[in-house]
Design a protein that fits this description.
113 residues, alpha+beta, Alpha-Beta Plaits, three-stranded antiparallel beta sheet, two-stranded antiparallel sheet, 4 helices, 5 strands, 24% helix, globular, Oxidoreductase, 4Fe-4S
Length: 113
């Protein structure tokens, strides 16, 4: 079984929640459940004219990595519908290599059930 990960560039996440809706629709999940959840950090002022205000998408335990979609050569539903194109889902090792390319990224291991 392949180790799957989700890499999120939270510098560009706008908090639009498209990933949540796409996941819920793709997998037929009930209202309030999804394989990814967007959270807002802030806003608060760190120093004059320097603010903390970030959106961060986090995979939930219901995330499957869209194994079936990806086996057909498609992107994971969340990544396909991400308006900021800041989500990647794929082999964990490939995504790990991209972490050193820039700061403000988070990598999550997706445990497949």
């Amino acid at each position: 079984m392949e180790n799957i990960g989700m890499l999120i560039d939270y510098e560009w996440c706008s908090g639009c929640h498209s990933c949540e809706v796409a996941c819920q629709m793709e997998h037929g999940l009930p209202v309030g459940q999804t394989g990814i959840s967007v959270h807002t950090v802030g806003p608060w002022e760190i120093a004059e004219d320097n603010w903390q205000y970030t959106h961060l998408a986090l995979p939930t335990k219901q995330c499957t990595g869209c194994v079936t979609r990806r086996a057909k050569g498609k992107l994971a539903s969340c990544a396909h519908h991400c308006q900021s194109k800041c989500l990647q889902v794929g082999p964990l090792e490939d995504l790990m290599a991209e972490l050193s390319n820039k700061p403000s990224q988070a990598l999550f291991f997706i445990q497949q059930l």
